[in-house]
Amino acid sequence: MLTQFSLFRTIGIKLILFGIITGCACEAEQSSDRLRIMVVIPPQQYFVERVAGDRAEVTVLLPPGANPHTYEPRPADLAVLSRADIYFQLGLPFEEAWLPRLRSAETSTRFIDMLADIDLIMDDEHNHGHHNPHVWLSARSARTITGNIARELSDIDPQYARQYQENARDFIAELDALDAEFAERLRPFNRRTLLMHHPAWVYFARDYDLTILAIEEHGSEPGAGRMADVIEQARRLNLRTVFVQPTINPRTADMVAGDIQGRIVVLENLSYEWEQNMRTAVDEFERALQESNHAE
Question: What is the dihedral angle through the alpha carbons of 267, 90, 17, 31, rounded to the nearest 10 degrees?
Answer without folding.
Answer: 90
